[in-house]
Task: structure prediction
Amino acid sequence: MVTPARPNAPSAAAERTDGSPVRIGALAPLTRPGWVEAGQHLLSGLELGVRDVNDVGGIAGRPLELVVRDTAADPQRAAAAVDELARLGVAALAGEYHSVVARAAAARADALGLPYLCSSAVLDALTDQPTEWVARLSPPQSRGWQVYSDFLLGAGHRRIAVAVQPSVYWASGTRILRDHLAPRGGSVVEIDMSALTPADVCDELLRSRATALLLLVGHPEPAVPIVQAVRRDQRLAGILIGAPAGQPEFAEWAALLGEDGAGVPFLRYLPETLTPLGARVEKVLRERLGSAPSFVAFEGYDSIAVLTDLFRSHGTDRAASWASVAVEGTRGRIQFSRTPGSSVWQWDRPPVQVVDREAAKPDEPARFRILHAG
Result:
């Protein structure tokens, strides 16, 4: 692959060997309205990855160093952070959870010629034009949400209601669901949450004659009140509540909803069995976080593994040779390719599961059940 030229960029042979740190810019939502728990898991994975690299000598004797910026789910704030991190001389960027924020970061990184490995955001159109500078670990939304659609069909659901808020991400998800379900006899009914309360959703859901309601809305508001309203409406006792974007993955969901939050299928990006590296990382992350690490924490760790492989192969002069990456991550072997319809380099085999939480039993915590894999 030909890496785009950068004026006055030093060659790998001219790399610094004075022991100064190799800096990686880390983007994560760490304050509201960002999804703070997701940001904390992402950052924990990134930090552990950096620690492990430094424990074995860093990059040619130079330690890795994270330079963390809070995006707070704000695309403009993220773009400004990319500009700042570029001025600070970071060798690459990693991170971000929210798709619309990652899209803004990717656009700036592409414009500046700064490698950016998007850890968690799934929006297919991460950049408007094909770019050599941006790669992604998480599967594109079209793949994950098609897997989710297949799960719904396999469970006998053909008429699906979506409680949806205005957003590029939610609009894209609705379109993917509709396009995948329609040829298979399914249909999607939209319930516009910009004009309705959670209590109104119950009446709309009853009128829709849907057998499943998907939450294409923010967390905890209005997702949590919607779940509570539907669970407590006896007319809707047979309705499946789903959350393809992964809200039930995190401990906050269970803390806020209790048993009401059980049995809500969501997407997560883990294999049935972690690699040996993944099993070790899972143990350390569990101790750090005080709870089971989410798939987002593994994405953070794997981001550092990928960038380390890139730096060791091509130096730290902001080269972006994603096609050369081949590294064992926590969830499998990671390599990148160009996939149809994607403008960025994509890990070609990220795992996809549809999972829900079992109701907690008195003598043991709630567990996740794998319902479908794709």
User: Anything to note?
Assistant: The radius of gyration is 21 Å. Residues 273 and 314 are 31 Å apart (CA to CA).
